Amino acid sequence: MTAPISIRDSTDADIAAIQAIYAHHVVHGRGSFEEIPPGIETMAERRAALLAKGLPYIVAVRADKIVGYAYAGPFRPRAAYRYSLEDSIYVAPDAVGGGIGRGLLVALLARAEAWGARQMVAVIGDSANAGSIGLHKSLGFRMVGVFEAIGYKHGRWVDSVMMQRPLGRGSDAPPEEKA
I need a surface site. Which of 55, 81, 155, 173 has the fewest CB within 10 A? Predict the structure, then answer.
């Protein structure tokens, strides 16, 4: 029997595991358009920047081991986008397919809504990424577009799939003002 998964806020002590998971996806996958894995210091700086804005950065833990992580960041930097976030989810290669991505995304959506976000955007690398596309669709995201052949990685052109999901009251009412 597999040990249960718990989802919690990330800590500084999690950075090495987070960096290792991301490095695997950078080197072997097309979900990230980075081609060289950032180091631990860079990953720590990225996390700190999101936490400084009060944004969620969470991890999935099984038997005291980080098996995935997720965070929400600003969709775009201009002020009018301040209620729209973009999700990022990465699961350890030996833990893919066990519901970890789903648990992370469910928790991330709840935290983003509590933060005050009204829209969550998923920018999914590679239109062949059926797992991520299916996960997002199963949790209420809808396809809003595809940037075809927008990146070139691992010897082939790669699409970016755009999906979107409202949070809370979505666009039905004005949001509470954020600074």
Answer: 155
